[in-house]
Fold this protein.
Amino acid sequence: MNRTESSRSFFMATWLGWQIESNWTDPFLFAVYMVIKPLASAAILVVMFGIITNGNFENPLFPYIYLGNAFYIYVGAVMAGVSWAVIDDREHYKTLKYMYIAPIHIPSYWLGRGVARFLTGSVSVIITLLAGVLFLHLKLDLVAVNWPLFIVSLIIGVLMLAMMGLVLASITLLVAHHFFLLGEAVAGALYLFSGAIFPLDVLPAWIRPVGFVMPITYWLELMRRSLIGNIAQTFPTLAGFSNAQLLGILTALTIVFAGLAFATFQACDKRARERGLIDMTTNY
Amino acid sequence: MKAEPLSVLTGIQNPKVIGWRLFLKTIIARAYPRLIGQQREKSWIFFDIFLPMLGVSAYVYVYRAIGAPEEYVGFVVVGGAMTAFWMNVLWSMSSQLYWEKEQGNLALYIIAPNSMMAILLGMALGGMLATALRAVAIIILGMWMFQVQFMVTSTLQLLAVFFLAMTALYGMGMMSASLFLLLSREAWHIANLAQEPVYLVSGFYFPIKSFNFWVAAAASIIPLTLGLDAMRQLVFPSGALLGFLNVKLEIGILTGLCIVFLTGAKFLLSYMEKLAIREGRLTESRR
């Protein structure tokens, strides 16, 4: 592999991913598709919160839940997006074997495919935040936002999600019967254990440690603190950590996942070649 | 699945099997892989129960975080169990003919001497029974994990609501399956799009009464909306207070929806099949 090959694979896959994601319909329907799904998802939580609190959206728990849910869109988009490329190419388009014999760097290619999902996910996150500010009294003061913390956390977080996606993509190479459910199961489990939509203290004490080893827990906390610092810090779960400490933990866990991603790819890729799984079509 | 039992079930090798007997045998043959085949893949059973339980648990903890009364936990568990049916209708009924087209089976269905309506009924029957097993498992797990207490006020009404809601829901699935007959790549996206909005408007995780009357009334076109509302009224002590309409009225509306959707499915399927044949879309595969 050389630098040109990996960057070429990445950018070409980005373009290809965008075409696959967007050209199945006309731009209007595509825009509707990108708006309705995240808003409906957020609205479920808003209605639940509104019923119980009699519409008290001033409660600090509301922005905690709303922002966690909004940024969690990236988890489904980036993490599942990267791993979905394997399923799409192997089972749907039946092109994975051609990708393997082409002069491309496979992990870079998968990461590139995830970029399209990152872009559509970003639109969904922005729309969800805008709807919160415009219609739900979500207090986002753009002047008070800690922009450096926001940008750094977002970049590290997306990298971390891409690495987790690479781990899943590598495992998907070996899996036949459960591949559709793998990304969904991991995303669903993380939604519960990382305290995306409720403080971790609500979970039974024996489950909480699972949340503390997940980088997403720290990433979501950083995203909340950068946007609504004074409110986010009132929740006790991670109150003992400073922003720098959280950033340090997130960076360390991202590096761990990067190492894990490339080790998993090496192992799964070797095994998939040995077992002749690269051109497998299961028709599931 | 071996070829022999299927041919015995369908009666394809027996030229005397025609008319209503062929119709019934087609239903059984199409229900067979749904009912038996899905149970053979044990990992699917695990994921079908495990995935909705993750969502149910997350929403239960949201309610606990905001200090909701405990009956709302029960509402979430019942709603979570019913998501299994909505997912089944969406992915294994509505978009099924699209998948069949992708696999090359759709043309075989059309050229075989059986009724497409019987094939859809078989898919619905098999899917409903297989999904019911998963829904029961979710309810039992929810009761065990979150100490949900049920207090059934009328078993007869509860059974009537459940079967009417299921019949209307799968009738709606059969109707939309014929629309999906014309779709290609967009089928997956449209099915995907219909998940969360329906969870929202049908009140899977909260009482539908929370909405404005007209919003709730419009949402009642989806049979699960009234089905869920009636079931909650019948199994929770405070359910009646949070109910949208009287249970008897909801049973009446659900009966009407059953008739509308099943009749609509028959006519729409016939029309769409002709249209798809005329436009050459039955074997088209635009990936």
